[in-house]
Amino acid sequence: MTRPCRSALFLPASNPRAIEKARGLACDAVILDLEDAVAPEAKADARTAAVAACRAGFGARRTVLRINALDTPWGADDLAAAFDLPVDAVLVPKVRDGAEASRYRGALAGPALWVMIETARALSQLQPIADAVGAGGGLVVGTNDLALELRCAGRAALAPVLPLVVAAGRAAGALVLDGVRNDFSDLAAFAAEAREGAALGFDGKTLIHPAQIDPCNAAFSPSAEAVARARSVVAAFALPENAGKGAIRLDGRMVERLHLADAERVLALAGLG
């Protein structure tokens, strides 16, 4: 069954109150952050707290650990701690090319590899990075860092880039998550941005505040109309007369087996698969 990852909430690993609260939130994933959200002097203690939190688990939610890069004083220890940690994925910042992603992948035993796409160089290496991450891995757009490095004026200027990340992820069979929105006070604007991300093909979005979870889940969940269409496609292909057919006529248009696969995905995301 398709496991949704509509909403992935960043949590500072150094904040035990936020970690405990997250166990009761409706997000699909929690990302325990050892990087941007933790001050240098708190890195070691945050790592210890993150390991304990990961071992305690977050119920049905995906658990992801964002480590510091290997070229920092904390990256090697973070990666060693994550080696066989019971998490779904390890998220690595500022990956620049496929060779770098492959090194991280080779250093992990069980967890999937997620990488942040947040450097100018990464944009020219999207497919090698996605291929190194592989099926079951993930690409996460770091819109803040990316806009800063490109010296562009925020998300709107990234419009040509975002579909390329989605395409690379799809080609590799990887999960693809949209970047955060820093302003969590304007939920209407956030919801519009989440709907835009869903329309671009992202699987979900990263978040920085619990208030963003509900509108994010709504944006990345199949609509009632999409569910109804998916039901009709699945039902049509299940008819005896359509057994073995590669394409059928439904409601005045041709529907192929690839549409059946997508319909099944939609129903699984809606919890109906």
Outline the structure in words.
The longest helix has 15 residues, at 224-238. An eight-stranded parallel barrel has the order 1-2-3-4-5-6-7-8, surrounded by seven helices. A two-stranded antiparallel sheet has the order 9-10. The protein is built from twelve helices and ten strands. The protein has helices at residues 16-22, 43-56, 75-82, 98-106, 120-123, 126-133, 143-150, 162-172, 187-200, 213-219, 224-238, 257-269; strands at residues 7-12, 29-33, 62-66, 89-92, 112-117, 138-141, 175-178, 204-207, 247-250, 253-256. The protein is α/β, with parallel strands linked by helices. It is globular, with a radius of gyration of 20 Å. 42% of the residues are buried. The model has no long low-confidence stretch (mean pLDDT 93). Helix 9 links the parallel strand 7 and strand 8 (204-207).
